[in-house]
Amino acid sequence: MLQNATLREWVIDAYHLYWYHSDQTWQKNKYLGFEVKQAPSDLWIYQELIFAQRPRFILQTGVSQGGSVVFFAHLLDLIQAPPSALVIGVDIVLTDAAKRIDHPRVRLIEGSSVSSDTIETIRSLVPNQRGFVSLDSDHSREHVLAELRAYAQFVELGSHMVAEDTNVNGHPVFPDFGPGPYEAVEDFLASDTGFVRDDAVWRERHLFSLHQYGWLKRIR
């Protein structure tokens, strides 16, 4: 075991960089034939949280090829969630792959994740309910911050809102990306006391995450 904390963090970051930039890892992953550009360790964290929290719905922005949406729907099946427990996916343009998803829990919305029409459509699907939220669309600081503020209302007390890909802009990958999810989370937490970072869910389990520092837990 590495005793020196600085050396330990260096090794973790070095592995993160090497793994992330390999063309054989997360960019090649599929879930039952649907592309899912995630680290398997992050999907495992999602599985543990959803099993423990049993959310009344799961909401994801940024559907892409649909792998995460299908994964979430099957998790709800496996924990025997009621049929009313939906997986809602939002994307500015739905891909052909996403449109092929055939699962009774899945509802897809095409449009901007932060538009008033989209938010109202979500409210109509889950009236007076709160659940679990994953944000994985446009990764610019401004857009992610707008999503965090718009979707906080849908998060159940004790549940999570995940700002994905907080590792970009030098945290530790893609140092030239520019302000992104990590910086948006910093801004959000500075103004919203209802959420805290839940670093233990990734740091203690797998040492690194593509969404590190973006696992936010609602505490009030």
Structure write-up:
- It is a single chain.
- With 220 residues, the chain is of the alpha/beta class.
- It is built from eight helices and nine strands.
- The protein has helices at 5-21, 40-53, 67-78, 96-99, 116-125, 141-151, 181-191, 200-206, and strands spanning 30-31, 34-35, 57-61, 86-91, 106-110, 132-135, 160-163, 195-197, 215-218.
- The strands form two sheets. It has a seven-stranded mixed β-sheet, with helices on both faces.
- α6 (141-151) links the parallel β6 and β7 (160-163).
- α6 (141-151) packs across α7.
- The longest helix has 17 residues, at 5-21.
- The chain is globular.
- The termini are far apart.
CA gyration radius, whole angstroms: 17 Å
* Helical percentage: 25-40%
How far the N terminus sits from the C terminus, by CA atoms, comes to 37 Å
Q: Quick one: biggest sheet?
A: 7 strands, mixed
Shape: globular
Strand fraction band? 15-25%
Tally of helical segments: 8
